[in-house]
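step 3/5: co-fold with zinc ion
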Amino acid sequence: MSVLIRGGRVITAADDYVADLFVENETITLIGESLDLQADRVIDAAGKYVLPGCVDPHTHLDMPFGGTVTIDDVESGQTAAAFGGTTCHVDFVIQGQGQTFAAALDGWRAKAAGKQVIDMGYHMAVTDLDEGGTLEELATLPDQGVTSYKLFMAYKGALMVDDETLFRTMEVAAKTGALVMVHAENGDVIAVLVEQALAAGHTEPKYHALTRPPEAEGEATNRAIQLARLAGAPLYVVHVTCKEAVEPIALAREKGWDVWGETCTQYFFNSLDDIAKPNFEGAKYVYSPPVRDKSNHDVLWNAVRTDALSVISTDHCAFLFDGQKTLGKDDFSKIPNGGPGLENRLQMIHEFGVRAGRISLNRMVELLATNPAKLFGLYPRKGTIAVGSDADLVVFDPARTVTISAASHHSKADYNLYEGTTVTGTPELVLLRGNVLVENGTLVASPGIGRFVPRARFGDELKPARP
Ligand code: URP
Ligand code: ZN
Ligand code: ZN
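step 4/5: write tokens
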């Protein structure tokens, strides 16, 4: 199967030019001007952007959490991703208590079997080194293409690990070439604040944010950075929300340490005003770390502009408002934490990042595709447009205006964090390894087309040239 994409404006992290792309056997084989070639499928991309398929390194599909299971399984979550121009994601396998890493991985693979719409990889979330997986077993995961370990420093009594587990995992990562990812919030302190709030009769959703203050995120971020430094492991801080966490990451990066940070789409837009909405509406905005005061929106835009933060992910962790979020109707601490977002990342960052003049088109591609691919061992197969790369491509119409709504999105979530937002610029055609996934507003490929992608060990593509 060959595909010729004619006359699009090709945008990568580094370049911006008009060209034809020729795709054979799922990869890009030629890039040039006015290519005189026959193809099974010819796509006219004149007036459109041609972007690399976006890579989302932070998703939770079909995950048991907060007394329920995330509403999007691999098929619905990846369908939402495809419509939004994301062609590869890395999902979190969560090691159960007493479970080996092999058993945890098998469980996640079984959930994906036959359902994959886009390509995917796995991170391993380490929760139990006492009775479950061993350090020796953890060390074997990179050989299976699972090259990142995730640790939760919050969610006491559920996913949270102590500093010993964190540090021992970091030591393994330093040896095996895996990247350590942390959810950085001080879970012990949060547990005390939650207990105090409930004892005072504070049950509404807004107390979720008030019991998880920015200082708890800043402290844990600092701690993780120092421990990673001590262990000699590279560190990636997920879903950074505030100045208190951006500052230590920026400082570490200035010093040339192997520290990277990610934020998520929702943290640029949602705020304490949302979580305080009446009639339990605020529960839609209960995720962790929580929404912050609006002053942090500019902090985050500035951080992604200056590379203090290097990735924008979604942390897609969708629950129904009706029936799942309502588990916490009388107690904010029982509201399942998480929100939907896989479909709208590119639209929202294009509209409010690029069109609003905050970041360039190249930087958008870098944040949504190239940097996640580089950090997570997928580059240059994913995350760019180059000869030899997978033909994961988005033909993006920069002039088409759409209004985001739960009524038209593809997640099973019954609400959208950006409901009613109008954006100009949206994916028109999405290809996975040269196969058309989405066309004319329809999913045209069948589930099963997506593959597991073994990822390379943490490389040095993103390490700055140092004097
Ligand atoms: O609230 C969130 N973010 N839910 C997903 C789990 C996590 O902490 O990433
Ligand atoms: Zn988290
Ligand atoms: Zn997450």
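step 5/5: annotate
The chain is about 30% helix and 25% strand.
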